[in-house]
Structures are given as C-alpha cells and as structure tokens.
UniProtKB/TrEMBL annotation:
<comment type="function">
    <text>Catalyzes the hydrolysis of fructose 1,6-bisphosphate (Fru 1,6-P2) and sedoheptulose 1,7-bisphosphate (Sed 1,7-P2) to fructose 6-phosphate and sedoheptulose 7-phosphate, respectively.</text>
</comment>
<dbReference type="GO" id="GO:0030388">
    <property type="term" value="P:fructose 1,6-bisphosphate metabolic process"/>
</dbReference>
<keyword id="KW-0119">Carbohydrate metabolism</keyword>
<keyword id="KW-0378">Hydrolase</keyword>
<keyword id="KW-0464">Manganese</keyword>
<protein>
    <recommendedName>
        <fullName>D-fructose 1,6-bisphosphatase class 2/sedoheptulose 1,7-bisphosphatase</fullName>
        <ecNumber>3.1.3.11</ecNumber>
        <ecNumber>3.1.3.37</ecNumber>
    </recommendedName>
</protein>
<feature type="binding site">
    <location>
        <position position="101"/>
    </location>
    <ligand>
        <name>Mn(2+) 2</name>
    </ligand>
</feature>
<dbReference type="GO" id="GO:0042132">
    <property type="term" value="F:fructose 1,6-bisphosphate 1-phosphatase activity"/>
</dbReference>
<comment type="pathway">
    <text>Carbohydrate biosynthesis; Calvin cycle.</text>
</comment>
<keyword id="KW-0113">Calvin cycle</keyword>
<dbReference type="GO" id="GO:0006094">
    <property type="term" value="P:gluconeogenesis"/>
</dbReference>
<comment type="subunit">
    <text>Homotetramer.</text>
</comment>
<feature type="binding site">
    <location>
        <position position="98"/>
    </location>
    <ligand>
        <name>Mn(2+) 2</name>
    </ligand>
</feature>
<dbReference type="GO" id="GO:0046872">
    <property type="term" value="F:metal ion binding"/>
</dbReference>
<feature type="binding site">
    <location>
        <position position="226"/>
    </location>
    <ligand>
        <name>Mn(2+) 2</name>
    </ligand>
</feature>
<keyword id="KW-0479">Metal-binding</keyword>
<dbReference type="GO" id="GO:0019253">
    <property type="term" value="P:reductive pentose-phosphate cycle"/>
</dbReference>
C-alpha cells in the first residue's frame, strides 16, 4: 500500500523542500535554509491523502512550530477524513523527516546536503531521542559480519575479506570532529583511507549501500535522528547499519548533549529505553513491514545532483528506495515554474 499510494507523492515532498532550500544556497543563513525547507515539506505533505505522524522531526512541539515530533500530517488527519479518504489512506503511518540535512552545507554552498524522509506503518520507525549515536554502515556483503562493538581495525579486516580487496582500497567516511581523533588515527594506521566530512552523515551512510560510490564505510558518532533515517535506507538496500545511543557528554566532547550523563540516562528511561547501551541494527531502527525512503539533493552529492535552476524552472534529482519492491529509483525531474508553477502550489 505505502509504495503504490505514496511513492510518487513523497518524491514531490522532498523535491519541494530541496527547491526551497536551494534558493538559500551560499547565503550563509543556515536557519533560513532549514526553515524554508520545513515549510515547503509540510505544505506538500499536508496535501497527501494519508494519515501521518511525525516521529522524527524538527524537535519537540515547544521549540518547533512545524514538523514537530507528534505533529499529524496529511489530509486524512482531518476530522471529516472518512468522507473523502479511502480506508487504506486512513491507516496511520509514521514519518521521519530531515527537510534540510546538512544546513551548513547549504549555507556555505558545499556538497552533500539533501531533503530526506522515511515512512513506515505506525511503530515502524524508532523514535530516537535528540541524542548522538555511534554508527557503523557498510555494504551488504559485510552485513552481519562487521560489528560496531569490534574495533575499526577488525572491521576493516573483515570488510577487506568480504569485499575481496586490500584494506588500502577501502574508503571510510568520518565526521571531522575532535571526538574522532583516535578513530581517524586508527583507520589510517590500519591502512584504509579516510574521507572527512564536515556535515551530512546520512548521505555517507547510504553511499555504503551502493556499489561504485567509492565510500565503503561510515564510522563514528553523528546525530541519532539522522541515524534512524540512514537505517531506513540501509534496511531497504540490505546494507549493514548499526547504531548505539551516546548519552555521556564526555564521549562527544562538543555539541549539544544535555547536562550530564545522569540526566541523559534519566531522560532515556522516561522514554522507555531501558537498555541505553543497546546496539540497534537497521531492522530494529526501521522495523516496519514496509519502509520507504526518499531524498532529493539540495547541493550536489555522491548519490544525487543538487538543484539546478534555469530560466523558468529547475532540475532536481531524487532517490526513492522501497523495502517492498526492493528498488532504488533515481528520479530526474524538470520543474517548470512559469505557467505550471501555479499548478504545483495549489
Ligand atoms: O555537528 P554535530 O553536532 O557533530 O552533529 C552531527 C550531525 O549533524 C549533521 O551534520 C546535520 O547537521 P544539520 O542539523 O545542521 O543539518 C548530521 O549529518 C550529523 O549526524
């Protein structure tokens, strides 16, 4: 049901967010680049015949006026929905969104930003707290063989065996953060090559699921909500993804991670997470029977082109991945702004 009814619609949702955000590329205003993407995504989502609930979004209701966690989206959330929505459309679905993944990348005109979302039936996506997450992504051939609890050196050796290549031929993406100093050193000493990124680890994780991207692993700590979205894509692709929540501010060194380890543990308990050290795999983070993932490039990236404006229009490239049909479709769209623009928005 999800893919046939929502497949095309969710492409338009990420396209509209990317188009809006791309107007702010290189303007040095990351909050605006994010805000316009949020508004565009929400506006398009609310025209879809579905009954959606945001499980990963812009934050708690008090801080985020739109696409906040718990917000209901889609026409079929209206009270009179039974009059115009068919029974399939009344089934509740959960949605994880990141309308502008890599706000700094957009603001400074750098590669790798995208508008992204994942959908599943109710309860099918892990409602991750706004914490950090240790992540390990790797290609399908290494699935279940590499393990986040092993050292980077061990995992690289396993990957080299599964992928039939020397460790020196592997490329590992790591976020360029002080917390990764030792990890980077270890990967280099093991012989692999490191690609440091300033932002945007969703794209890096997903690249591991595609042959030919020359990205073989993502290692290190990034944001937990982004981890769930990455897991949704990797679940559909059959790639390896594991995540472990990080609740100790000492581990992260920089960034927003609550006041203390104790208060973070208490927060996790309140959320019903009783084993804070649990290692989640892709099938647990995105456990729904059907999972759909969609992304649209804002700036150019390893998987997709960014938005390219031209007189009277723009061209976008999106990716939609489905666990149902086991497909990953790249969609190249030309948006004509002159006359059809009115059609797009109304
Ligand atoms: O910058 P931090 O605090 O290390 O967080 C890393 C996370 O931030 C991101 O780079 C996204 O940043 P934005 O929220 O600005 O889009 C993620 O890709 C990554 O998981």
């Amino acid at each position: 049901m999800l893919e046939s009814t929502l497949g095309l619609e969710i492409i338009e949702v990420v396209e509209q967010a990317a188009l809006a955000s791309a107007r702010w590329m290189g303007k040095g205003e990351k909050n605006t680049a994010d805000q316009v993407a949020v508004e565009a995504m929400r506006e398009r989502m609310n025209r879809i015949h579905m009954r959606g609930r945001i499980v990963i979004g812009e934050g708690e209701r008090d801080d985020a006026p739109m696409l906040y966690i718990g917000e209901e989206v889609g026409i079929c959330t209206r009270e009179d929905a039974k009059d115009f929505c068919n029974p399939d459309e009344l089934i509740e679905i959960d949605i994880a969104v990141d309308p502008c993944e890599g706000t700094n990348l957009v603001a400074y005109g750098q590669n790798g930003s995208m508008a992204v979302l994942a959908i599943s039936e109710k309860g099918g996506l892990f409602a991750a707290p706004d914490f950090y997450m240790k992540k390990l992504a790797a290609p399908a051939v290494a699935k279940g063989k590499v393990d986040i609890s092993k050292s980077a050196t061990e995992n690289l050796k396993i990957m080299s065996e599964c992928m039939d290549r020397a460790v020196e031929e592997l490329v590992v993406v790591v976020m360029d953060r002080p917390r990764h100093k030792e990890l980077i050193q270890e990967i280099r000493e093991a012989g692999a090559r490191v690609r440091l990124i300033s932002d945007g680890d969703v794209s890096a994780a997903i690249c591991c699921g595609f042959a030919g991207t020359n990205i073989h692993a993502l290692m290190g700590i990034g944001a937990a909500p982004e981890g769930v979205i990455s897991a949704a894509a990797m679940r559909c692709l059959g790639g390896h993804f594991q995540g472990q929540l990080i609740y100790d501010p000492e581990v992260v060194k920089t960034g927003l991670i609550g006041e203390s380890k104790e208060s973070n543990l208490a927060r996790l308990k309140d959320m019903g997470i009783n084993d804070p050290d649990k290692v989640y795999d892709a099938e647990e983070l995105a456990s729904g029977e059907t999972v759909l993932f969609a992304a649209c490039g804002i700036t150019p990236g390893n998987l997709m082109e960014g938005v390219r404006f031209f007189g009277g229009g723009a061209r976008t490239q999106s990716l939609v991945i489905s666990s149902q049909s086991r497909t990953a479709r790249f969609v190249d769209t030309i948006h004509m702004f002159d006359e059809p623009r009115a059609l797009q928005l109304k």
